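[recover] target loaded
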């Protein structure tokens, strides 16, 4: 039991180190990962046959982290706009943390990334479809496709933030997604305001929610 626990701790340490190293340098090697984790290269290979196997493990860990942050989503919510905005608000910090890794993985293993994110995609598609049926979201495109549009939009926000071209936060992303889904501007702003926890979570700009469109 102790040996198994030690092995799991080593694996977790390697994954944490790889996550940090690859965010800083997408070309980092397993030697770089071993150095950051404080283990020898042989230990890394004892858990992962190659760099690709390590990336696969990172993708699944990131997907699990994301799904955990999503929490319980009411896909039949009376207010689907607020429910969707709440999902964005809850998960944006996780998206910021794991986004670079997902982008890196998509370059060589897009199918693996899609498979790992399937549970989240399914939930979002059901929520969007419910919003369409309720007349809250636009119906001109299939819900699953709209979900992909929002995911690609989030990736664009992430790249813009990383390059310093955009300094918005999760409330701005939520607002943008609702506008993309055809929610009128004022209704979208109100939905984002309702999505922010009652404790008064504020954007890092010092405002409760964005009142403009960008």
């Amino acid at each position: 039991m102790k040996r198994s626990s030690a092995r799991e701790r080593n694996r977790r340490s390697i994954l944490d180190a790889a996550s940090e190293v690859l965010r800083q340098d997408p070309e980092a090697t397993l030697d770089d990962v071993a150095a950051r984790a404080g283990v020898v290269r042989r230990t890394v290979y004892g858990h992962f046959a190659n760099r690709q196997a390590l990336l696969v493990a990172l993708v699944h860990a990131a997907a699990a982290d994301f799904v955990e942050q999503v929490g319980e989503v009411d896909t039949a919510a009376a207010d689907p706009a607020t429910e969707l905005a709440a999902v964005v608000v809850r998960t944006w910090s996780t998206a910021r943390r794991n986004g670079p890794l997902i982008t890196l993985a998509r370059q060589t293993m897009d199918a693996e990334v899609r498979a790992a994110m399937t549970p989240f995609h399914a939930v979002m598609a059901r929520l969007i479809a419910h919003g369409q049926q309720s007349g809250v979201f636009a119906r001109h495109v299939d819900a699953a496709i709209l979900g992909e549009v929002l995911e690609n939009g989030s990736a664009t926000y992430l790249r813009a933030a990383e390059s310093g071209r955009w300094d918005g936060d999760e409330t701005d992303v939520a607002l943008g997604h609702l506008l993309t889904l055809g929610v009128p501007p004022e209704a979208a702003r109100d939905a984002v305001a309702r999505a922010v926890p009652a404790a008064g979570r504020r954007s890092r700009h010092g405002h409760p929610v964005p009142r403009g469109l960008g």
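[recover] notes: The domain at 1-49 is CATH 1.10.10.60 (Arc Repressor Mutant, subunit A).
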